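Dissemination and training. As part of the outreach component of the grant, students in the summer workshop were shown how a complex can be specified as a set of sequence lines and then modelled as a single object. The example used during the hands-on session is reproduced here so that future cohorts can follow it. Participants entered these lines:
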Amino acid sequence: MASKQKNMTPQQQKYQQLQQKHELKRPVLKNCIKAFWVGGLICVVGQAISYFYIYFFNFTEQSVGNPTVATMVFLSMLLTGFGVYDRLGQYAGAGSAVPVTGFGNAVISAAIEHRTEGFVLGVGGNMFKLAGSVILFGVFSAFVVALIKTLLGMWGVL
Amino acid sequence: MVYIIRLILFVSIFLMSSCSQGQNEKDSQLALIKTTNPNPTVTEENKGQDNAEKIEKEVESFDEIYDVAVVKGKKDTLVVYKVKHMHRFNMKKVEKDLNKILEKKYPKENFTVSSDYKVFLEAVRLVERKNNGKLSDKKAEKRFNEIVKMTSDMK
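and obtained this result:
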């Protein structure tokens, strides 16, 4: 950064200072609060769905995660299609992107964006553009954790 | 944003109205979100009720546990409990300690211990139906064995 400033002409440096003076500051705390309450609300909905499955179906606390995640992703896909999740994303930022619902949003928004390029190369080819990396790193980290757990189990630590 | 707020309001009003119906009906309806502490029950009447009560008191004495259901069948004794929120990090330890103490104090009993919400809910439902006379001893024992099997399948 310092070397960059050295290479600048005095006029450029002056402009830089002026620009910094007028630059809008990011409301970090406000964004955090928004992300916290919307993310928390999504988790409450998820908890309610898992209780629903425990109460009305034959799922235990251990196995209820799968249908809950599937339902949450499906709901966020629908909301993305209706254009509601985009607004929520603009308002809450990470609060709507970090929970599993963000995954559904990433898949469907990419599919909608590229639908003009055709069904196969457009939708099919770009659907997992962002979500693909989530799957890859998710599967890989699950493999590493399972490997560590197996080894610890073999050594008698766990 | 207005749509979202309307949706949240609609859902919360719907949930609140559906929760208030028939409040005094059953404990099992809210067993997942409130403390029920059902009376210890035996599937075969007049057999081992005292023991089941003693076991329930023993389990309740644990600081980490706040809601207990004990159901005693012909062979097994089902002990289901809820763990206080901050102690849920030590679920395995609580289960291990509980098993140890119960097996030490009641060596003749065959315990099935679980902290799963589903097993708790099913145990409360079984207790309720048994106490209301909706289940005969035979049917209660059958359902009890199904719950015990479900618990052992999870492990």
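Chain B touches chain A through 14 residues (CB under 8 Å). Students were then asked to discuss how this feature might be tested experimentally.
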